[in-house]
């Protein structure tokens, strides 16, 4: 048995179940890692306007296509509209910059990166809020879908109530939700809601965000070092990362782990070649303890800010 290679969006597009996460990667390290990932077989690339790495990604993809090593139609590229560009008039501007940098005429999935909008980010990360209705931003994504430059559209970091507001809109459908999810944060309610509404879920930080630059106290609880995960990994002769990725994919999620290490990139990609036993899968389910590595505390006070209790 093995994990399915693709999941099918409600647009009928096929999305790979495992992808290359690019958060915090830039420049030569990113270009080297992505080129190797594409060589290994990765076909899903996850990026965002606010990652400031789309030009690097675009160059790698262009070079591989030019060399005859890759076809654009075989890639699935996801990018995201920044929180500074959530007014409908600004959505297209943000997206056109992404298309230019990625050197492509379309992306396979376009997401609203966060439900909260800001005018700018000041010193020390202070947010200057701009209270834009997420429905207005969604209308901008729907326009891009109709034009054909965004083959599917979705959201990231949204709560169930926020998803309901998007689903109540007429027009092109919500296909995709990206959210933090891992063995310490099961997100049962959100996953069940998405399943019921034919929305594919991508889990970001599937390995517990070990390198996120934050003072979050939860960083002291390292998922990759969890005794149960390591016990199962030793038993089935896999890496802890492979256990964690396989676990989420068995739950029906897409995963986008980040690494610039070639050995880890190869190991992560092989996470779909087998399936956890029911016993081990159920044991990992018991690890859920509500640990959230991305709390977005600097968004407190925004009309769309959600308390942790929503998770």
From TrEMBL:
<feature type="binding site">
    <location>
        <position position="113"/>
    </location>
    <ligand>
        <name>substrate</name>
    </ligand>
</feature>
<feature type="active site" description="Proton donor">
    <location>
        <position position="51"/>
    </location>
</feature>
<dbReference type="InterPro" id="IPR020471">
    <property type="entry name" value="AKR"/>
</dbReference>
<dbReference type="InterPro" id="IPR036812">
    <property type="entry name" value="NAD(P)_OxRdtase_dom_sf"/>
</dbReference>
<feature type="domain" description="NADP-dependent oxidoreductase">
    <location>
        <begin position="31"/>
        <end position="286"/>
    </location>
</feature>
<dbReference type="InterPro" id="IPR018170">
    <property type="entry name" value="Aldo/ket_reductase_CS"/>
</dbReference>
<dbReference type="InterPro" id="IPR023210">
    <property type="entry name" value="NADP_OxRdtase_dom"/>
</dbReference>
<dbReference type="Pfam" id="PF00248">
    <property type="entry name" value="Aldo_ket_red"/>
</dbReference>
<protein>
    <submittedName>
        <fullName>Aldo/Keto reductase</fullName>
    </submittedName>
</protein>
<feature type="site" description="Lowers pKa of active site Tyr">
    <location>
        <position position="80"/>
    </location>
</feature>
<dbReference type="GO" id="GO:0016491">
    <property type="term" value="F:oxidoreductase activity"/>
</dbReference>
């Amino acid at each position: 048995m093995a994990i399915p290679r693709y999941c099918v969006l409600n647009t009928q597009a096929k999305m790979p179940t495992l992808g290359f996460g690019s958060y915090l990667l830039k420049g030569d390290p990113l270009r080297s890692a992505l080129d190797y990932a594409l060589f290994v077989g990765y076909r899903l690339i996850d990026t965002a306007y606010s990652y400031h790495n789309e030009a690097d990604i675009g160059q790698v993809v262009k070079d591989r296509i030019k060399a005859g090593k890759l076809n654009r139609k075989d890639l699935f590229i996801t990018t995201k509209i920044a929180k500074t560009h959530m007014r409908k008039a600004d959505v297209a501007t943000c997206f056109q910059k992404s298309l230019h940098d990625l050197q492509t005429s379309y992306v396979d999935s376009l997401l609203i990166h966060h439900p909260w909008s800001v005018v700018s980010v000041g010193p020390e990360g202070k947010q200057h809020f701009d209270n834009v209705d997420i429905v207005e931003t969604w209308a901008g994504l729907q326009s891009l879908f109709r034009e054909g430059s965004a083959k599917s559209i979705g959201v990231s970091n949204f709560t169930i109530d926020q998803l309901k507001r998007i689903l109540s809109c007429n027009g092109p459908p919500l296909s995709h939700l990206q959210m933090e999810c891992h063995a310490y944060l099961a997100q049962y309610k959100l996953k069940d809601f998405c399943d019921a509404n034919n929305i594919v879920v991508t889990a970001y930080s599937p390995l517990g965000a070990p390198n996120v630059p934050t003072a979050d106290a939860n960083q002291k609880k390292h998922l990759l070092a969890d005794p149960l995960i390591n016990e199962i990994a030793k038993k089935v002769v896999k890496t802890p990362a492979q256990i964690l990725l396989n676990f989420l994919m068995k739950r029906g999620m897409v995963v986008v782990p980040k690494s610039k290490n070639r050995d880890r990139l190869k190991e992560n990609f092989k996470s779909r070649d087998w399936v956890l036993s029911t016993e081990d899968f159920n044991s990992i389910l018991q690890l859920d303890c509500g640990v959230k590595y991305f709390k977005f505390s600097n968004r407190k006070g925004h009309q769309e800010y959600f308390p942790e209790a929503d998770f």
